[in-house]
Design a protein that fits this description.
This is L-ascorbate metabolism protein UlaG, beta-lactamase superfamily. It comes from Algoriphagus locisalis. The protein is of the alpha/beta class. It contains nine helices and 15 strands. It has one domain (75-367): Metallo-beta-lactamase, Chain A, CATH 3.60.15. The chain has helices spanning 2-21, 31-37, 60-70, 90-94, 169-175, 189-194, 262-270, 294-303, 326-337, and strands at residues 43-44, 47-48, 101-104, 110-114, 117-121, 154-158, 179-185, 202-205, 210-213, 216-221, 241-245, 250-253, 275-279, 309-312, 350-352. A seven-stranded mixed beta sheet has the order 8-7-6-5-4-3-15. It starts with a helix and ends in a 26-residue tail after the last strand.
Length: 378
């Protein structure tokens, strides 16, 4: 009995030390900033809140019951073949004499090049979306389209919220020295300052705030979600979606969000958009208020008045119980039903907005022989 108690205490001590000493958890906003947030309509009792009632209830008993289902060995929840990846060369990314284009890294991470600027959106480049590699499941792809170290200088990083599958400590450590500025929702700057980013480079926005950033209009728009990286700081930072408007292109990035009237409000204020990246994956009937199901994703794209949208938040990690191809199959079917153009690029492919975006093949259903141009250049 003494041995068992000792082991339990040791585990508890290690857990407490890990949470309090590990840099991955970041930091909480200062008391001075919290006092400023109190003036906002969507901040109360020390927490940010959604614009509409949002069910976040999942008691301990229900969470425990869900664990066996989540860790079930279901082969449909990840690919059984190597996903096709187009590998990018650092030299082609340095060239800025081209129309607006994006590169998708899978899940919700993008490189965007617009009006001569190079931007990263939610750069999560590690293998596991968690504070420690042993606490999560690995990325589907063994490699990224380009290694983080080979990326060119980054003009700005844009963040949607602070969850581990979007904000990654290791990635920021590799990127902070080559990034000019960072844009994020309120409160998130505490993480970046704790991780050694110069505070003069950090720009925090509230919902509907706009900022001129190196010739681009950036606007943080609402999302229906939540935040938190530790055990007791849920809702301590804000979450949101982004409008990125350049000289000729208007782009929307949804971040994570449940469906709601905010999409129509965004479309009315900032639309139409010629391209939108819309959350579509890691959903479940238990948390439909904070993650859209695919049919809602297609409708949300129509609400914001998107000429074309692509489903994101899938094809990299298993964070829910549905099959890994369920998001893309369902969203394509719904988009066709409501006559909403949808585009599903391969990971690493150049998404060139001056071209007619059409999905060439259902690459998520079967592997293909990789030509020399798609062989890793490591």
């Amino acid at each position: 009995m003494i041995t068992i108690i000792s082991i339990i205490l040791l585990i508890a001590i290690v857990a407490v030390l890990f949470v309090n000493l590990s840099p991955q958890f970041g930091a909480n906003p200062s008391k001075e900033k919290v006092l400023q947030y109190e003036k906002l309509d969507y901040f109360e009792n020390g927490k940010f809140s959604n614009l509409m009632p949002t069910n976040m209830d999942m008691d301990f008993t229900e969470a425990i019951k869900m664990l066996p289902e989540f860790f079930k060995n279901d082969p449909t929840r990840r690919p059984d073949f190597e996903l096709p990846i187009e590998y990018r060369d650092s030299l082609e990314l340095v060239n800025k004499d081209h129309p607006t284009r994006l590169v998708w890294f899978g899940h919700s991470s993008f490189l965007l090049q617009i009006d001569g600027k190079t931007i990263l959106i939610d750069p999560m480049f590690s293998e596991v979306p968690s504070p420690h590699p042993l606490l999560g499941k690995k990325r589907y792809s063994k490699e990224l389209p380009i290694e983080v170290e080979k990326l060119p200088q980054i003009d700005m990083i844009i963040m949607s919220h602070d969850h581990y599958d979007h904000l990654d400590y290791e990635s920021i450590q590799k990127l902070k020295g080559k990034t000019k500025s960072f844009y994020m929702p309120l409160g998130m700057g505490a993480h970046f300052e704790d991780w050694g980013v110069d505070s003069t480079k950090i720009h925090e926005l509230g919902w509907w705030d706009e900022i001129q950033a190196d010739g681009l209009l950036l606007a943080l728009t609402p999302a229906r979600h939540f935040s938190g990286r530790g055990l007791n700081n849920r809702f301590s930072t804000l979450w949101g979606s982004w409008v990125i408007r350049g000289e000729s292109d208007n782009i929307f990035f949804s971040g994570d969000s449940g469906y709601g009237p905010h999409f129509k409000q965004i479309g009315e204020k900032y639309g139409p958009f010629n391209f939108a990246m819309m959350e579509c994956g890691q959903y479940n009937e238990r948390w439909t208020d904070i993650h859209m199901v695919p049919e809602e994703t297609a409708q949300a794209a129509k609400d914001i008045r998107a000429k074309t949208f692509m489903p994101i938040h899938w094809a990299a990690f298993t964070l829910a119980m549905h099959s890994w191809t369920d998001p893309v199959e369902r969203v394509i079917a719904k988009a066709k039903e409501i006559n909403q153009p949808v585009y599903v690029p391969e990971i690493g492919e150049f998404i060139e907005l001056d071209k007619n975006l059409e999905t060439e093949r259902k690459w998520w259903l079967e592997p293909k022989a990789l030509p020399n141009s798609m062989i890793s250049n490591k």
